[in-house]
Amino acid sequence: MAVRVLVTAAVVLSLGLLAWVAMLRLAIMRRTVRDWVLFWAQLALTVGCFVLLQEEDQDSWQINVGAAVVLAMAAAVVWHYLATDIKHHRAAAVPGARPPHGAPAYGYPPVDPATAVTLPGPNPNPYTQQPQPPNPYATTPPASAPTPPPSPRIDQVRAELDELSDLLRKEGEK
């Protein structure tokens, strides 16, 4: 809503010279060929009006035509922008509605409406907790991994270390 107000205010307050901003927003938002063609046509018309407004004589027909076209274009762009933007956002707010351009949402594969499966009942909550796959980088070994039996060499080293610590205790007491 705030962006809609800002874009409309920019067009009105600039007396139509920034009307291309509204058309660019529509073209980027909806990504249809029609919107891009309208954007480029409107931008070319604005540049043409700038050329007409550069006349030195203040009462020339070029300035009058340029100013009239810019003001008429501003009114047309504001009307088109508001109607299209409101329609676009209402369609997006309806559950299950697809964008008018038919492009899939970011991160989702395209869905063929002919083969789409609809489930009866309420829509499932997409934010429910899903089971997480196991982490392959976890530091704890799996519970099913067998532990190898201790080797006799380890028992021998332990016994020698025990003897050595006993010897060191006896020498430390002396």
Automatic annotation (TrEMBL):
Q: Which residues form a coiled coil?
A: none
Region spans: Disordered: 103-154
- Bias (Pro residues) occurs at 121-136, 143-152
Keyword annotations from UniProtKB, A to Z:
Membrane, Transmembrane, Transmembrane helix
Which residue ranges does UniProt annotate as crossing the membrane? 6-24, 36-54, 60-82
This protein's source sits in the domain of life called Bacteria
Looking at the keywords, is Hydrolase present? no
Q: What is this protein called?
A: Integral membrane protein
Please spell out the taxonomic lineage of the organism that makes this protein: Bacteria, Bacillati, Actinomycetota, Actinomycetes, Kitasatosporales
